[in-house]
Every structure is written in structure tokens, then in C-alpha cells.
Amino acid sequence: MSTHNVAVIVGSLRKESFNRKFANAVIAIAPETLRMAIVPIGDLPLYNQDLETESPPEQWVAFRDAIRGVDALLFVTPEYNRSMPGGLKNAIDVGSRPSGKGVWSHKPAAVISVTPGALGAMAANQALRQTLAGVNVATMPGPEAFIAQAGTLFDPDGRLTNDKTLDFLRKFVEAFGQWIERNAPQR
Fold it and tell me: Looking at the 3D structure of the chain, how many domains does it have?
């Protein structure tokens, strides 16, 4: 199996969010063949085509360069009002522009949705998948990851301690690695 660089994009901007904790848990259990790192989205100015000049905002340039340089994408998102957070949608918009020069196209991806509630943020997961299809991202169809009751899965130090969830995440990451192998663009 080849080694692949994976951008982990956390939809929640909160420092201590369950989504960030899950992203860190996945990074911790990922095999050496998947080099995962969180690419922050919190400082991206809202997409505004008027700013798409010869000198776009430096945060946009840095973000686009970071995404352009990876082989695959892992999105970890909460659900806000039955959809993905606005900051995550903005990051997708920033990365999809300027037209014809987007950084998302043909990258394999996976989605994990996380919530302290009971439904696993299913609406956000599906909304994100729909948006990723629009920017030509090859999103892994399964296994799907809808993580519910997130507040009960961590110890006070923020470590994922639920064995059933850890086992699921290991299987999820293994499937994601296989998805990347089959779908990553050749460099």
C-alpha cells in the first residue's frame, strides 16, 4: 500500500469540540500509510468573488495550497440546523474557486459526522456529501460514520475511551485507506 497525505478538515471551529477530538482520535489510530494532518478553516475570510483578484486573501492562498498538496480528504463535521456549519461550506467554496482551478476535484474523501445528540448528525453528513459531489470529490460510500452521543465517549483528558467506537473507527480508517488506494489521482 502506498503512503498518502490526507487533509483532515474539521467543521467545528470550537477548540474543544467533539469533532476536533474525533479528528485527533482518527489521526492517532491511522496507519503510517495515511499521513493525516488537520488543515484549519477558522481564519478563512468569507468567499467573495470581488476578492478573487491577482492577490486574493493570503488565507485563501495558503488553504488552497494545503489542499492542492494532499492525496485525500477526511471531513469531520457537526450538524448545525440540519446541515453542515457555515465555516465548512465556506472552506469548500474557497477551495472550489476560481472557476476551473478548484483544488477539490478527483480527490478521494470520507465523511464522519459527530454530535452529542442521538441521530449522529446524519443530515449534515448527507448535506456535505451532496456538496462534495458538486465539486467532484470521490466520497467513500461506506462504511458511513454517524457518531452519536459524543459527550459520553471521551475521558476528561479528551481521549476516546469507548472500545466499540474505537473498533468502528479502525475499520472505517482501513476502508478509507483502501478507498484512497483505488481512487487517488496518480502523481
Answer: 1
